[in-house]
Amino acid sequence: MIAAAATSRSRIERRMRQRRMAKVIVAIALAVIWVPVAIIMLAAGMADRRG
Predict the structure, then answer these.
(1) CA 43 to chain centre
(2) For residues 30 and 25, what is the distance between their CA atoms, to the nearest angstrom?
(3) What is the pTM for the complete model shown?
(4) For residues 23 and 38, what is the distance between their CA atoms, to the nearest angstrom?
């Protein structure tokens, strides 16, 4: 009984850790995609203002 509770707890912890890692990976992926887009948009906006 105690061992079963311990294994289920470790399984839940592992699942939560994987979910947290997935969120971090998604956040990094979004940053990698959006940072260059934002830079390009800013550069295009600056060019428009100068023109």
Answers:
(1) 26
(2) 9
(3) 0.58
(4) 22
